[in-house]
Amino acid sequence: MARQRTNPEMKVSRSPVTGVHKPRAGAEVDHHQGFNLAIEDALKNIGRARGRYHAHVHLSALVDVKNPGHIVEYHATLT
Questions:
Q1: Residue 72 to residues 19, 20, 44: CA-CA distances in angstroms?
Q2: Residues 30, 74: contact at Cβ < 8 Å?
Q3: Contacts of 78 (CB under 8 A, 6+ apart)
Q4: Does 3 fall in a domain?
Q5: Domain coverage including residue 28
Q6: Is the residue at 2 inside a domain?
Q7: CA-to-CA distance for 12 and 8, rounded, in angstroms?
Q8: What is the tens place of the pLDDT at every residue in 8-56?
Q9: What is the Cα–Cα distance from 58 to 68, expressed in whole angstroms?
């Protein structure tokens, strides 16, 4: 296994980080793109030094149930 480089000056977060994407009201959104944007948001706020890490990705959504229902927020949690 490759050795990970760390930056001692950077705060290292071990707690879960959640990214959120909220599409504009009424906008048609490709679900893959919505989750991709949520993952990008989580990665911006991961708070770890440069390097490669094994992470679990959990995708979830806030859904407005109507007829038809739609996703209000896309969530991606990295642990």
A1: 14, 10, 21
A2: no
A3: 16, 17, 18, 19, 39, 42, 43, 46, 55, 56, 57
A4: no
A5: 18-78
A6: no
A7: 9
A8: 444 544 789 999 999 998 888 899 999 999 999 999 999 888 889 889 9
A9: 25
